[in-house]
Design goal:
Layout lengths: L2 H4 L10 H7 L10 H14 L3 H7 L3 H10 L18 H18 L3 H20 L10 H19 L5 H11 L4 H9 L5 H6 L4 H13 L5 H19 L8 H20 L9 H15 L5 H17 L6 H7 L10 H11 L4 H14 L4 H14 L3 H19 L2 H16 L8 H9 L10 H14 L5 H9 L9 H17 L25 H16 L4 H9 L1 H12 L11 H11 L5 H21 L12 H16 L5 H18 L12 E3 L10 H22 L10 H11 L1 H17 L6 H16 L6 E3 L9 E2 H8 L5 H21 L13 H14 L7 H4 L9 H8 L5 H9 L2 H8 L7 H9 L10 H16 L13 H15 L15 H17 L12 H12 L7 H18 L9 E5 L2 E5 L1 H9 L13 H15 L5 H9 L2 H4 L1 H8 L1 E5 L7 H11 L4 E5 L1 H15 L6 H18 L10 H13 L7 H7 L7 H20 L5 H17 L29 H5 L1 H9 L4 H8 L4 H17 L11 H18 L5 H11 L4 H17 L1 H8 L1
Parallel strand pairs: 1-2
Antiparallel strand pairs: 2-3, 4-5, 6-7
Helix pairs in contact: 3-6, 4-7, 5-8, 6-7, 7-8, 7-9, 12-14, 12-15, 13-14, 13-15, 14-15, 15-18, 18-20, 19-21, 20-22, 21-22, 24-26, 25-26, 27-29, 28-29, 32-33, 32-34, 33-35, 34-36, 34-37, 35-37, 37-39, 38-40, 39-40, 39-42, 42-43, 45-47, 47-48, 49-50, 52-53, 52-57, 55-59, 58-59, 59-61, 61-62
Length: 1462
């Protein structure tokens, strides 16, 4: 028999049963039926049956899976049971027949046979995997075999020939299943994970052990994460469902055991990257759980609540005394990162209020682990800005409860939490001293003035003394709690006890300074160092305020011993007084006039200063016989020249170091310092407006030293490269830093030379200053910190990094110098330090390296190619070739750049992740370039930017600062940088104009164009432009204080700039296409939400978006509709949603606006002057719909050639109707929303001028019948918005009067209807069908509606006022409006530019309200109840009038008596 006839594949693989049947199909006799064939096959199986292996023959999945495994690049693995269908009916029936025959022979049910067969196969698969290194996971081949087995079992289940219960029992008898096997059986609907867990007593321990083993797997992360996520999802659903199921307790026990295991691992130390990868996998599972859609929010909250409780209460091994003593070791910075990551994951589903409320409940009901509790509070404070407010409120509640019930537990909890917050620093929480003073430092504190409360507090503080660290005892002594005079003995006893404890700890009370750090951080202070620091800080405060600080005045009274024996001696150190008074002399004189310095001490000080002056004049300059005839500065220059001579001679290293010592001595003579002077860390501000040096003499000496260093370096380099010159350069820089008075001046001068005069420096100076900066970076631990200036992060950084960040690169000369300077610094560091490639970046500032990375490919196009392409030079010893090039006077700087670019160590450094210039950093640098003075031409700049964006950063991975091939990420980064350009975040040196912004926007347009041309995938939807909204939404939500003027201006500027960029992008960026059930439709929900939440507060008072943005949106709707099957219907469906979801867009399309040749912000007198000068009004009313309608009509005709969509035509009809009505024609209105009709009518009417015949127009609206009332209500709303715009702007009396008359005219037509009152209710369900008004104006206008209400009601005539007074709910609306107006007055939110003062406005409203109360009638008991409820919010006079009025109506109307009786 041939191989083909035998049915065995040549390749050696077994063929499935169906394949065997297919191969023999041609040989079947034609007379055999299907039943006969089945019988023949069953007989064949009886003779050669292996039923256990037959289960694998029922599916082709094994061969398919093996084929996939053999492919070179297999597709991503799908879920095991989602791709192939069930086995065919013929295959199932054959297997069932075979199993039934064997069951009959054995005399058992067929389910028993099939279950045991399946168990044998599963156990066989697990047995062959048990020796695998991965343990908990199957191999890919066994996983495929098990998938095939599961599919066969599914076929048996469908024929009721399989028993899951027996199968589960047999499986536990034979062998415990591995977790992946259990998960595959669960996901294949063979037997659920809950059933497996319930069927064995040790199921909980088994599942916990399997989960732990799986967390430790390091290979096949995809399979590990898939199984973990699936199992945890099942456990969550089963364990925390409501109501709980039979297996709920078991599932919860497994999850509790896993969390305990994680906490035990974290308790042993280490982090996720060194020893706790398994625990990290479980934390990752919690993170994934938050993003899965399967568990409901309620289930997640119950699970995370339980986890949080378990974390806070696990292993409560620390007592309160331990927490007090060790609290400083449990801060956020010292807490292991995995533990803080766990805190953050558990806190995601909850608000800060809920978290701290739960924390309080746990503290009250459980024994807690104080380390976890306090580190959790620290994590919460660091990551959530709202935690400060909530924690402060919690501390107040704890203290109030503690003093009400004299509860020590609440008291100690409050102290521990406040100290923990203070340990995180003042940016996160107030210092402990501030909190202690605020809580106990005044008579109005939480403990009152009772003796019992004072005794309780003093007893509590006294009990803390044996355990309190010294810094807290100091706070209690420096800022003692307020105690009434009659109980002062209690406080004195505590202070005495605290001082005794400090003495036992060898902490001197006398050394406690005036400005003691009260944050709670235990910073050791050297004896005798506190007083000089106090003096320096007191002088700085006096210099900035001109007054003696309160701390000094208090110390002179309450700490007189420290003031006289420590502070004053440090202040009155003898010195040679300057000719003009400096800050210290002025401060001393102020203290003397305040009689704080004893006369004898001041006299001794003046005499000592005079003796010091004489000593300096006669003996200060002589000391060295060699140079005794030279002046100090001439002597310094001579010694620097001698240093250059020594460096140019071989073998003089010891003489060089001795010469440096002589130079240091000369500097000490020129700038003397006291030997006991305390070193103070100075922070420099590197900014052009900051003074270069407070002393011109210091600046001259700095020039001498810098010039001497450059000359010495050139002298030394003539003989030896830097790595063989010895340590003289490092010692030189360290020597200069040791002279603290000179260091600040020298560093300021260095910054000025490099950042402001760099283009004028010669080659020797560039090289010398570059080497000097490299050695400053080497000695950065001793170098003062610096802030680069406004626009950069405000925190100080090492001076070398700050100088590199400040190096300008805006113009061609600045770029050329920056490139030379950065290359010189890197080249010198390469030659000077023998560092491996991975540590080479430590030799020079990272900011200089990034400037080099930015400038090199920009100015040298050849550097845009990988140096490996052109060949990398052979590495010479310490980069000697580069050094020879840089010191060769005949070599060009371009040759140095090429030498550096091909240097192997530089190329290796270029590839390190930390040394990459990110896309955002490149954008910030490129936006700072001035186009008119750029080194590149326009075409060269376009070519360079396209290379950077398209070829360099777009395909680069994120760890290299790239976009990972995602154009969306590139667009987001560009837009973020563009917005930052105008927000002051990129530095004040960037000009407002002449930047590369147009070029960068062009790159953004190119990316957006590519996205438009990229078709969306079949399973994903077109969300190409939503990221534009996500970015601006993040900016808007990050506003710190929405009520603050600065925040409002920042938000307005952000939205304005965002709008300007968006309208330059493709019009389809704001509208997406959705496909649901085979039907395509347009969607702009994200844009509508953005308009409702952000842009709505930026529009003008009459509800109008910018024209450019409105037109851009409508054009985008028309263009995007072409992607739908029926474009016209798609447009109509989308625009029909605007009245309910975003009425502001609808109103903006139909409004008419004032286009004025004079800015509306110009002063009124100036506008009037221009009008008089020209003899006519320079304001022209131009309807938006006229140009917008023409654009949309021509666009739609060009795109489709058909009629306008119905909704677009409705906008045009509304506009035409409004024009006809205002002209005097009586035309029936179109079928449209009353809001749109009112908006068109109002804005067309405004176009006719202030007097547009509103009464006549209103008379023509009487024929509208049912549409008339809502139309008038909305028209009144727009008129009220006009009135508000006048009330909050500088006064225009005539216009204000006309607008007020228009409002009153409309209101007279609504006097008989209470609907207009809905406009003045809160924007909620109370407004009913008029709820859209709150979505078409700003929040500020909504808050000011009570002001508009009384501005109108106070001017109503008697008849109209009588009508509206009788309207249902009018009195209640008037009361609520008055209450809201009073609140606006108390909050200072009533604008009054040219209007009556706010107090007068409230008083007038009060008189109107009293008049309304006297004229109103109460129509029902329910309205009376509402009025009585509102009465409690009024001031006494209004409340009394209202109560009297209600009482009168109750007694005068018998109906009220009956109602009261009922």
């Amino acid at each position: 028999m041939s191989l083909e006839a035998s049915g065995i594949s040549v390749s050696g693989h077994r063929r499935s049963f169906s394949d065997l049947l297919a191969a023999h199909k041609a040989k079947r006799p034609r007379h055999q039926s299907e039943a006969e064939l089945r019988e023949t096959a069953v007989q064949l199986l009886d003779r050669h049956q292996n039923l256990s292996a037959l289960l694998l023959e029922g599916s082709t999945s094994v061969s398919e899976a093996q084929t996939d495994l053999c492919e070179e690049n297999p597709a991503p693995r799908a879920p095991p049971f989602s791709g192939a269908g069930p086995p065919s009916d013929l295959e199932d029936s054959l297997i069932v027949h075979a199993l039934q025959r064997q069951a009959v022979e054995l005399g058992v049910p067929v389910g028993v046979v099939s279950s045991k067969m399946a168990t044998e196969r599963v156990v066989d698969l697990m047995g062959r995997t048990a020796g695998c290194a991965r343990g908990a996971l199957l191999s890919s081949i066994r996983r495929a075999e098990l998938s095939a087995l599961v599919r066969s079992i599914q076929g048996l289940l469908s024929q009721r020939a399989f028993s899951p219960h027996i199968f589960c029992r047999e499986l536990w008898k034979c062998q415990q299943p591995t977790l992946e096997v259990a998960w595959l059986l669960h996901s294949g609907n063979v037997v659920t994970l809950e059933h497996i867990l319930e069927s064995e007593e040790g199921g909980v321990a088994w599942l916990g052990a399997e989960l732990k083993a799986l967390c430790g797997v390091e290979e096949d992360k995809e399979a590990q994460q898939q199984v973990l996520a699936g199992v945890v999802s099942v456990l969550l659903q089963a364990g925390f469902r409501d109501p709980p199921g039979d297996a709920s307790q078991l599932c919860v026990a497994v999850l509790d055991d896993m969390l305990s295991w994680v906490l035990d691992g974290l308790q042993q130390g280490g982090d996720l990257h060194s020893g706790t990868e398994a625990a990290g996998s479980w934390v990752w599972v919690l993170d994934l759980t938050l993003g899965r859609a399967s568990p409901s929010d309620a289930v997640l909250r119950r699970f995370f609540t339980r986890c949080l409780t378990q974390v806070l209460t696990c292993q409560p091994q620390f007592k309160v005394s331990d927490a007090i003593a060790n609290q400083s070791e449990w801060t956020f910075a010292k807490t292991p990162r995995p533990l803080t990551a766990l805190y953050r994951k558990l806190a995601v589903p909850f608000s800060v209020d809920e978290l701290l409320c739960h924390l309080r409940n746990v503290l009250e009901t459980h024994e807690v682990n104080w380390q976890h509790v306090l580190s959790f509070v620290s994590t919460l404070l660091v990551y959530d800005a709202q935690a400060l407010r909530t924690l402060t409120e919690l501390l107040s509640q704890l203290l109030n409860v503690a003093f009400e019930s004299y509860d020590l537990e609440n008291m100690i909890t409050a102290f521990l939490l406040s100290r923990q917050g203070a340990l995180e620093g003042p940016t996160v929480f107030p210092s402990y001293g501030e909190w202690f003073k605020a809580s106990f430092g005044s008579a109005g504190g939480c403990y009152g003035n009772s003796k019992k409360s004072v005794v309780f507090l003093m007893k509590f503080l006294s009990d803390l003394v044996p355990f309190d660290p010294p810094q807290y005892l100091k706070v209690h002594i420096l800022h003692p709690p307020y105690v009434p005079v009659k109980h002062r003995t209690l406080l004195q006893e505590y202070v005495s006890l605290a001082k005794t404890r400090l003495a036992d700890l060898k902490v001197s009370v006398d050394e406690m300074g005036l400005y003691e750090d009260s944050s709670g951080a235990d910073v050791p202070m050297q004896p005798g160092c506190q007083a000089p620091q106090d003096v320096e800080k007191a002088i700085r405060l006096f210099e900035s305020t001109g007054k003696i600080s309160a701390a000094v005045m208090e110390a002179s009274i309450f700490r007189r011993q420290y003031f006289l024996t420590r502070f004053l001696p440090a202040l009155l150190m003898p010195r040679a007084l300057p000719d003009s008074s400096d800050s210290q002399m002025s401060f001393i004189e102020s203290l003397r006039r305040a009689e704080k310095i004893p006369a004898s001490l001041y006299s001794a000080y003046t005499q000592s200063c005079e003796r010091e002056r004489l000593r300096r004049e006669h003996g200060g300059g002589a000391g060295l016989e060699v140079l005794k005839d030279l002046e100090p500065q001439e002597r310094l220059q001579a010694e620097l020249q001698e240093l250059g001579i020594l460096l140019s001679a071989p073998g003089t290293e010891e003489e060089v170091l001795a010469q440096l010592a002589r130079i240091s001595e000369s500097l000490a003579l020129l700038i003397p310092e006291r030997p006991d002077e305390t070193a103070v860390q100075v922070t420099l501000c590197l900014h052009p407006d900051s003074p270069a040096s407070p002393d011109p003499e210091h600046q001259r000496i700095a020039d001498v030293m810098l010039r001497g260093f450059c000359q010495s370096l050139m002298d030394a380099s003539r003989l030896r490269p830097p790595d063989r010159q010895g340590p003289w350069a490092s010692r030189f820089v360290q020597m200069l830093l040791g002279h603290r008075k000179l260091a600040a001046s020298l560093l300021q001068r260095l910054w000025g030379l490099i950042c402001e005069q760099g283009a004028t420096l010669g080659a020797a100076h560039v090289l010398g200053l570059a080497a000097f900066l490299v050695h400053l970076h080497e000695s950065r631990a001793r170098c003062p910190l610096a802030v680069p200036g406004p626009g950069w992060p405000p925190y100080p950084v090492p001076f070398s990094e700050a100088l590199g960040a400040s190096l300008p690169c805006s113009t061609a000369p600045e770029m050329a110098f920056a490139l030379r300077f950065c290359a010189a610094s890197v080249c010198y560091a390469l030659c000077r330090f023998a560092l491996p490639a991975e540590n080479l970046q430590e030799g020079f500032p990272a900011s200089l390296w990034k400037k080099l990375v930015y400038l090199l490919p920009r100015l040298l196009p050849g550097a845009r190619v990988d140096p490996l392409v052109g060949g990398v030079e052979v590495a010479d010893e310490a980069g000697q070739a580069a050094w020879r090039t840089i010191t060769d006077p005949t070599a060009s700087w371009e040759s140095l750049m090429w030498r550096l670019w091909r240097e192997p160590r530089v190329h290796a450094l270029w590839m390190l992740p930390g040394c990459q210039l990110s896309f955002s950093e490149w954008l910030d640098a490129e936006l700072g370039v001035r186009r008119s003075r750029d080194a590149l031409t326009d075409l060269e700049r376009i070519e360079y930017q396209q290379w950077v964006c398209q070829q360099h950063y777009l395909p680069a991975p994120p760890e290299q600062g790239g976009c990972d091939g995602d154009p969306h990420r590139a667009c987001s980064q560009i837009l973020r940088s563009v917005l930052d350009l105008h927000s002051g975040r990129q530095g004040s040196r960037i000009p407002d104009t002449d930047t590369c912004l147009p070029d960068i926007v062009s790159r953004l347009q190119e990316f957006m164009g590519e996205l438009e041309l990229t078709p969306p995938s079949s399973e994903s939807e077109d969300d190409s432009g939503i990221f534009l909204l996500d970015l601006v939404s993040q900016r808007c939500s990050a506003t710190s204080d929405p009520q603050a003027l600065s925040s409002q201006l920042d938000l307005e500027r952000t939205l304005h700039n965002w709008g300007r960029v968006v309208v330059a992008l493709p019009v389809t960026a704001l509208v997406t296409v959705r496909t649901r059930q085979g039907r395509t439709s347009l969607d702009c929900k994200a844009f509508m939400e953005h308009v409702n939440h952000a842009h709505r507060n930026m529009c003008d008072s009459v509800g109008r978006l910018p024209y450019t943005l409105t037109a851009h949106f409508f054009k985008g709707v028309l263009y995007t509709s072409l992607r739908c099957k029926h474009p016209s219907h798609a447009v109509d469906d989308l625009l029909s949603q605007l009245p309910q979801q975003c009425p502001l867009l609808l109103v903006s399309a139909g409004v008419r606006t004032l286009v004025c040749s004079i800015s509306p912000l110009a002063p009124t007198p100036y506008r009037q002057f221009v009008m008089v000068l020209t003899g006519k009004c320079v304001c022209v009313w131009q309807g938006w719909w006229s140009p917008l309608g023409s654009i949309l009509t021509s666009l739609w005709t060009r795109l489709t050639g058909s009629r306008l969509p119905q909704e677009i035509q409705r906008l045009a009809d509304c506009y035409n109707w409004a024009c006809s009505t205002v002209r005097g024609e009586v035309v029936p209105p179109p079928m449209a929303e009353p809001l749109l009709l009112a908006a068109c009518l109002h804005h067309v009417g405004r176009g006719q001028g202030g007097d547009w015949g509103i009464r006549t127009t209103l008379g023509r609206l009487e024929k509208l019948q049912e549409q008339r009332r809502p139309l008038l209500v909305f028209l009144l709303f727009f008129c009220v918005m006009d009135l508000l715009s006048i009330l909050i702007q500088p006064p225009e009396t005539d216009r204000a009067r006309r607008l007020q008359e228009a409002c009153l005219e409309v209101l007279s037509y609504l006097a008989d209807s209470p609907d207009w009152l809905l406009l003045f209710k809160s924007p909620a369900a109370e407004q009913r069908e008029y709820q859209a008004v709150s979505m078409t104006t700003t929040d500020r206008n909504i808050r000011l509606m009570p002001l508009a209400f009384y501005s109108l009601v106070s001017h109503l005539d008697t008849d109209v006022l009588g009508k509206v007074t009788r309207s249902p709910g009018f009195l209640l609306t008037a009361l609520r409006s008055y209450s809201a107006l009073t609140k606006l007055f108390l909050d200072g939110l009533i604008p009054s530019p040219g209007q009556p003062p706010p107090l007068q406005a409230v008083a007038e409203a009060k008189q109107v309200l009293l008049k309304i109360i006297s004229q109103s009638s109460v129509q029902s008991s329910s309205s009376q109840a509402q009025l009585e409820a509102a009465c409690g919010e009024m001031d006494p006079e209004v409340a009394a009038a209202l109560s009297s009025h209600l009482l009168y109506h109750r007694h005068s109307d018998p109906l009220y008596g009956d109602l009261d009786y009922l």
